[in-house]
Structure formats: structure tokens, C-alpha cells
Amino acid sequence: MNLSNTSQLGFSDTKKHYKILDGLRGVAAIIVVAFHILETFTGGDHSKQIINHGYLAVDFFFVLSGFVIGYAYDDRWQKMTLGGFFKRRLIRLHPMIIIGMIIGAVTFYFQDSSFFPVISETPVWKMLLVMVIGFTLIPVGHSMDIRGWTEMHPLNGPAWSLFFEYVGNILYALFIRKLSNKILALLVFIAGAALIHLAVTSPHGDVIGGWSIDATQLRIGFTRLLYPFLAGLLLSRIVKPGQYKNAFFWSSLILVVVFSIPRVGNPEQVWQNGLYDSLSIIFVFPLVVYIGASGETKGKMASKISRFLGDISYPLYIIHYPFIYMYMAWIAKNQEFIDTAPLGKTTMILISITVLLVTVTLAYALFKLYDVPVRKWLTNKLMKK
User: Fold this and answer.
1) Do 64 and 232 touch, CB atoms closer than 8 A?
2) What contacts 233, CB < 8 A, 6 or more positions away?
3) CA distance 212 to 232
4) What sections of the protein cross the membrane (predicted)?
């Protein structure tokens, strides 16, 4: 998931910076947090989820990734080496990956509950080993599952999408950047067909998955990566942004509606929801990126909001889930209180809001006090000619 913006890519030039796309990342990241908070109460039944399609934010991020990578780098390769490209991407993405793993480790034993049956059996040395491996973003197999969910990054589950983001970056640098638009368009078509097939044949009728090291989950992960990443890249090459008024409002509204639509179809026709998922990714998300790239933020307040949302987007996404783990543990341990006490549900709502506010605040603090200074230091150390 590429959450970078074009003003922080290590180049000094006058390329237009798409501020609205920054803001859209932030909108999607906040929806992801709300989606994960509400997911706690579904009991695995997707039809009960209020923000039902919030999981599609990952696919939207991949479209943005392809678009931003193509826009920022396609015309740089005459003066940029592979090593330079990979250094820039590591500097942009990896500091927050490390801090996300540390937060996951610090909060790990506070997450012990019936939701996570393996935590109580996990020795500290094994947890620390998983953390160190997590620093590299190398996935762990089931033998290193310290939570019981078979995640490739059990200290910070959403890091699976960053693993595929790295895969997309590597493929782009080694092969995809060299492809003509015709060949790229053909690959986009094939990847889109594969995405539709995955979604409509899924036993659950959606594209959810990609976070485990097994054949089924890896297929989901690669399929979710390839179409949106390639489509975003193609979009950056062939479409010239237009001029739309209120582009941030309309593109944000489209995202909120797509993520919030209730489950489509019924348990006997789950393919209908799969079709909704795939068509949203194939048609709606590239349209949203196009609209976002075709507008301007006018006024100080609009610019500040867009900048704030862009600043918190990546930190929020990569640090929020350890707090969701703790939130789920609290729910599991206090379910009777929530169900029976006079203020049980009110307390639950207040804690839910607190989780959202704390993660947003921490994300902004980490952006200012950790992410930006560390990236600046690494750029000075590693990118000097």
C-alpha cells in the first residue's frame, strides 16, 4: 500500500503535487480504523458489518500507489538507478513499519483474550523474534503464529498490505516500468478478469484476505495487488487530469458511499457482493483518483484539512491495529458488563471513540516527531551524491 505523496519522494522539481489525493488517503485510513472497530461485533458474519466494504480501502490504496509511482518515477529513470529507487521507497515506507512492529510488541500481552488463544502461550523470546523479523517485513509462516490468526505479521496484521506494496514496487522497478502502454493495458485487462473471477467465486463473496502465507491467501493478495496497482500506473500514463470543482468533496463522498454500502445480495447469492467488490475496484476507484487529481484545494482551511489527512494517512494505517487488538480484548473480557450494566453500551461507545481519537492523535504525533525527522536523516545519509 503506497501512502507516499509526491512532495516527499526525494526529488527537487516543480511537478504538481496532488494535495487532494493526500486527503483521500486520510479519508480512507480513518474509514479503515472505524471499519476495524465495528468489525469486532460481527462475529465473523460480514452481513452485520456497518461500514460493510471498508476492507476495500486497501484496494483503493493500491490504485493510488500505481498512480503516484507512475507519476513520480516514470520519467526519472535516465537519471535514477535501481538502487536509488529502492532507497527512496525504503526511506519513505520503512520507518513507520518498524515503529508499527514495536507498538505491536509493546501492546502484545495486553491483547490476551479469547479472541487470541495463542498469546498466553507465547514466550517473550518468540514474540521478540517475530518483532525483529517484522522489522524486515519478511512474512512469517504458521510455525511463528503467536496470535492464532495465521497472520504473516502477527504483531501488526495490516503490514501484509505493505508486503504486497513492496512486491509491487519491486515488479515496477525491475519489469513493469519498461512496458509499453499497450502491453500494460493488456496486463490490466487480464488482472481485472482475474479479480472478477476471484471475487465472484469466493465462498464468502468478497475479496477479503491476503494476510497469510498459504496458497489461497497468497492468491488473494497478489490478485488484490495487481489490477489496482497496474491500473493506477496506466492511469498516470494515459489520462490527463481535467478540472473539477469541489473535487475533494465529491471524490471523498464516492469513497464513503462505496465503503458504506450494505452487503450486496444474500447468503445464497454471495457472488453478487463479489461482483460489487470487483467492479468498485475496477471502475470506481480509478475514477475517484482521476477526480482527485483533477481538482484543487482552495482556501487555507481546505488546504490544512487535506494536508492533515495526508500527514496522518500512512502512520494511522500502520499503527492502528495493535490498538484494535487491545480493544477486541477489552470487549471479550467485558462482554457481560456491556450487555447488562446500565452504562455498559455507553462505556463501549466512549471507548470506541477513544480508540479512534487516540490512534489519529498518535499517528499525527509520530508523523511530526518520528517519521519526518527519521526520513530526513536517512535522506541526508543515504541519498547524497
Assistant:
1) yes
2) 66, 67, 69, 70, 172, 176, 184
3) 25
4) 20-38, 50-73, 93-111, 123-140, 160-176, 183-200, 220-239, 246-262, 274-293, 314-332, 347-367
Q: What is the mean pLDDT of the chain?
A: 93
* Pair 167, 139: CB distance under 8 Å: no
When computed from its CA atoms, the radius of gyration of the chain, rounded to whole angstroms, is 20
pLDDT score recorded for residue 242: 84
pLDDT tens-digit readout, 30-89? 999 999 999 998 877 777 888 999 999 999 999 999 999 999 999 999 999 999 999 999
Provide the grid cell at 5: 505523496
For the stretch 300-306, contacts whose Cβ atoms lie closer than 8 Å and that sit 24 or more positions apart, written own/partner, are 302/248, 303/19, 305/23, 306/19, 306/20, 306/22, 306/23, 306/26, 306/248
Contact predicate 4/68, CB 8 Å: yes
Is 90 exceeded by the pLDDT of residue 1?
Answer: no
H helical segments located in the chain:
19-39, 57-73, 82-106, 124-136, 159-174, 181-201, 215-238, 247-260, 271-279, 285-293, 300-319, 321-333, 335-340, 344-366, 372-382
Q: For residues 303 and 311, is the Cβ–Cβ distance under 8 A?
A: no
Grid cell digits, residue 53:
466494504
Question: Above 80 in pLDDT, residue 13?
Answer: no
